Amino acid sequence: MEQQRLLAIHASEARVRVKSSNYPSPFAERMAGRVKHPLGDLFGLHNFGVNLTELTPGAVSSLLHRHSRQDEFIYVLEGELTLVTDEGEVVLTRGMCAGFAAGGPAHQIANRSAAVGIYLEIGDRSADDEVPIRRTISLRCVKMTGGRSDGRMGRLTRSHCRAGPDRQAAMRD
Is residue 65 within 8 Å of residue 146, measured between CB atoms? Predict the structure, then answer.
């Protein structure tokens, strides 16, 4: 018997992503308060991903990062969120959006308000996307590889780690 394809769903009813973060410890703990509902996967989308993301007060979307190949777009549905980039900060409210071209500014979404913030994040699933992490982790220490052939995100590796003051300082941040 062939499984019937899902045609529509209320986004907030989509299951929560099981693994809350691809970051290794102790950085994964910084994503506490972030809840992602993968939406694109529900419909078998392979070329781009869509997440309904909730940030509780004090939570962040990710470490400050940029993508080497992937474009990313966010649209705020509820609350007040702060877009943090290496070029400055902007407060985002309901109805506002922001986009990040591959190789563009490093970015992160922070909830500095007293209420939950909810937004859609949309990104393509480019093969061999690398995600160097800014400020918090040395660029030589950690990178994310993604765009696997099955359309899922890759993984964070420490394959480029080098001992030294740069890495030690990054681990303290």
Answer: no
- AA letter at 100: F
Token pair of 90 as six digits: 């902007």
Instruction: Please provide the DSSP assignment of 3-34 as one string.
Output: PPPP----GGGSPPPSS--SSPTTTGGGGTTE
Q: Give 10-residue mean pLDDT values along the chain (173 residues).
A: 78 87 80 92 93 96 89 97 95 97 93 98 85 51 42 42 34 31
DSSP letter assigned to residue 51? E
pTM, 2 dp? 0.74
Contact by Cβ (8 Å): 14, 118: no
Structural domains of the chain sorted by starting position, each given as residue range(s) with its CATH number in brackets: 13-172 (2.60.120.10)
For residues 102 and 68, the answer to whether their CB atoms sit within 8 Å is: yes
Contacts of 52 (CB under 8 A, 6+ apart): 11, 12, 14, 36, 37, 39, 77, 118, 119, 120
- Nearest-angstrom CA–CA distance, 105 and 102: 9
